[in-house]
Design goal:
By secondary structure, the protein is mainly α. Helices cover 59% and strands 0% of the residues. α1 packs across α2 and α2 packs across α4.
Length: 97
């Protein structure tokens, strides 16, 4: 996955940083790509561990244990656990719960 330089520039400008050097902008883009890749990989590991857990544990945690799907689906909870390993918390609006 590649983060476009335009997106990186927009994020930097909206946070109050002006960057005119293309090399520095590309460095920020690459750092963002690395972070997203690591985060997605960690969330995928969390999801696999959750799916391999016994049904009793999955039911206690509130996950559906009906039919086993063949495709993998990352849940917000999986991403939240992965973000906690980086010291970040994911807050969801109260109306989503």
């Amino acid at each position: 996955m590649q983060v476009p330089d335009e997106l990186t520039k927009h994020a930097l400008v909206s946070s109050g940083v002006s960057c005119e050097d293309e090399r520095t902008l590309r460095m920020f883009s690459l750092a963002g790509e690395l972070f997203l890749d690591e985060l997605i990989e960690e969330a995928r590991v969390v999801q696999q561990n959750r799916m391999q857990a016994p049904q009793k544990y999955q039911q206690a945690e509130g996950f559906s244990t009906g039919t086993r799907e063949k495709r993998s689906v990352l849940l917000t909870e999986d991403i939240a656990v992965a973000l906690q390993e980086y010291g970040m918390r994911l807050y969801r609006p109260p109306f989503v719960r």
